[in-house]
Amino acid sequence: MHNRITQLFNIRYPIIQAGMVWASGWRLASAVSNAGGLGLIGAGSMYPHVLEEHIRKCKQATQQPFGVNVPLLYPDIDQLMQIIIREGVKIVFTSAGNPKTWTPVLKAAGITVVHVVSSSAFAVKSQAAGVDAVVAEGFEAGGHNGREETTSMVLIPAVCSQVQVPVIAAGGIGSGKAMAAAFALGAAGVQVGSRFVATPEASSHISFKEAVLAAKEGDTALSLKKLTPVRLIRNRFYESVKAAEDRGANTGELLALLGRGRAKKGMFEGQLDEGELEIGQVSALIHAIQPAAAVVQEIWDEFLQTCHRLSGLV
Asked: Which terminus of the chain, N or C, has fewer Cβ atoms within 10 Å?
C-alpha cells in the first residue's frame, strides 16, 4: 500500500507498533519493522543509558525505519532527546505533554514527529505545533489515556475532520477488521499496542502476557484520573485504588498508594496482584502469543480480506 503514512515513514504497511512501557524494547521494534510495519522503542520505562543501548541494538537488528516513543511527562526528558538526536533516530512519537515544547527541536534535527492525542482540540494544537501526523487514541486504549473518555469510533472521525496532517488511529485496534473500520473513519494508519504485548519479542513478563490472554470483556478499567489516567487490568492494586477513589482520596493519597515502580513491578516483574497492569480493552480478543511478524501479517491480510468483502456490498 502507498498512502500518506507509508510514504511518511517509508514503510510497507501502515501499521505502527505502540511504544509501550516495559514491553517495547529493541527486539519488538526491530521485529515489527522487519515485518513491514513501524516498530517503536518505548522510552518511557528507560533510563537514558538504557535507551541508548536499545537504539544501537535496534540499528543492528534492522535496516528498516524504526522510531522512539517518548512520554513527555517522564523525567530525564532532556537527556532522552539528546540521545535520540545524537543517535540519528529519524522518527519520534511524543505523548502525554505539550507538543510545542519539543517538536521544533526535533524537526530542526530532521526528525519526523508524531504526537498522540485524545481529542480533536489537542490534535489541532499538535498540528499548529508542526507535527507531521497525529495518533488519535480512543478511550479503549491501554496505558495512559485521555480524561475525555471518547471512544475511537467517535474520536477518529472527529480528529480527521479538524486536521490536515495524516491521522493514525489507536485504541481498540488489534485486527485487520478493526484496521478497516479505522480507515473507513478516515485514518491513514493504525497504531497497535496490546496485541504486540502478546508476542515473544515483547520484553514484558510472561505472567503479564498470560494475564492479557486471560482477560475478558470488562476486565480492564480507567483509573487514577486525578493523577494521569491509565487503563489497568482489575487486580488487587486496582481494587485498592478504586476503593481510595470511591472514598474521595486526594492526589497526595493516590500518589502514596501508587508509590514507585508500580508498573515495572506488574508488567516487567510479573507481580500480578500488586503491580500496575496496563493493557487495552482489546485484550479480551487476544487469545494467543504469536511472533510479532505473524501479528503484522495477520492484521494486514485480514485488512485486505475485509476491504474486499465490503467492496462486494456495493
From this structure: C
Distance between CA atoms of residues 311 and 302, nearest Å? 14
Rounded-to-integer distance, Cα 129 and Cα 115, Å:
10
Any idea where the domains of the chain sit in the sequence? 4-203+289-311, 206-282
DSSP output for 169-220: EESS--SHHHHHHHHHTT-SEEEE-HHHHTSTTS-S-HHHHHHHHH--TT-E
DSSP string, 10-51: T-SSSEEE---TTT--HHHHHHHHHTTSBEEEEGGG--HHHH
SS3 content of the chain, % helix, strand, coil (to 5): 45, 15, 40
- CATH no. of 4-203+289-311: 3.20.20.70
Q: Which strands make up the sheet holding 143-144, listed edge to edge?
A: 143-144, 230-233, 220-223
Alpha carbon separation from 125 to 64, 117, 118, 165 (Å, rounded): 30, 10, 12, 12
In degrees and rounded to multiples of 5, residue 70 shows phi and psi of -125, 105
**How far is Cα 277 from Cα 143, in angstroms, rounded to an integer?**
8
Average pLDDT, stretch 42-62? 95
Residue with cell 480492564: 220
Cβ atoms of residues 228 and 251 within 8 Å = no
The reported pLDDT for the residue numbered 34 is 98
- pLDDT over 90 (residue 192): yes
Kindly report, residue by residue over 131-170, the tens digit of the pLDDT.
999 999 999 999 888 888 899 999 999 999 999 999 999 9
Distance CA 114, CA 166 (A): 10
Tell me what pLDDT residue 145 has.
81
User: Which tens digits make up the pLDDT trace of 106-121?
Assistant: 999 999 999 999 999 9
